[in-house]
Amino acid sequence: MMSQNSSELMGMPVQRANEGQHDAKRGFLKSPLFHLLAAILVVALFQGFVAKLFVVPTGSMQPTIEIGERIVVDKTAYRYGAGKTPQPSDIVVFKKDVETWESSKGEVQDKSTVKYAIKFVLGDLLGIGPTTNELLVKRVIAVEGQVVRCCSSDSGAMVVDGVPLDEPYVFKDPTTVANKFDCGSDSYSSRCLPTVTVPEGKLLVLGDHRAISDDGATECRSDKEQQSVDCYRWVDRKDVVGKASFKIWPLSSWGPIH
Asked: 32-49 vs 4-29: helix axis angle to the nearest 10?
């Protein structure tokens, strides 16, 4: 019969092996690699469900948001709770539907696997670079069921449901002069837009820098005659990523977005 001492001696290698495994696990949990992976996971979860960082690539939202500014996109704004949908005057970030919104002029779509992976990690997960989906930022002018036209005969304002909008944020809107250069004069203003009802589940979005913004009404603007309502480009509510809520960089622009 094996003695107690012999049994203890045979058990020692197993115990030491287990201790070695525990030491290895503890060592990994304390390692810089684990801390890096944990940080990436936390950032990815935060950006996936709570808020996302977004770098504004163009001047279409000037002066509200300048080129290159980093903003926080609140992904919870329209996600949780009944009736939480984008409202007129909200600034939203949305995925560009390539069938509706053509790629930027001269843009070449790069399908390289390596570059896609880099965009996924740096953009989608960490929010410090371009994303795999092209994102745009614009201001909501009208939501489903609302009737839109431009412009009012006296002030040249956008009109939604019969009410002229007060838009102090608009920068360099196409010129209009009542009775001389407007929607009824021989000299037609490119600010004028055809009357349309926003379709179900859609949004009409425009840039604050109206003169250069490539937005929902770009194809409707003409200096010769009014276009048909087919000129509008709509944003589907399901493509909205979230609400542009805060500027974080540069520090000189730090603050809420209105």
From this structure: 50
What confidence tens digit (pLDDT) does each residue in 2-27 have?
A: 455 555 545 555 555 555 566 566 66
Span 215-238, average pLDDT: 90
Q: Which residue has the higher pLDDT, 8 or 81?
A: 81
Measured from the Cβ of residue 10, the count of other Cβ atoms closer than 10 Å reads 10
Q: Residues 60, 152, 189, 213: which is the catalytic one?
A: 60
Residue 138 known to be catalytic: yes
Residue tagged active-site, from 75, 138, 202, 243: 138
- C-alpha span between 3 and 5 (Å, rounded): 5
Across 172-190, b (16+ Cβ under 10 Å) vs e yields: ebbebeeeebbbeeeebbb
Q: Average the pLDDT over 91-96 and give the result.
A: 94
DSSP 20: H
CATH of domain 31-258: 2.10.109.10
Q: What is the pLDDT of residue 112?
A: 73
Instruction: Identify which of 85, 81, 83, 107 has the alpha carbon closest to the alpha carbon of residue 94.
Output: 85
Check if 185 is active-site. no
Each domain of the chain, given as residue ranges in start order, spans 31-258
Residue 103 pLDDT greater than 60, yes or no: no
* 106/209 Cα distance (integer angstroms): 22
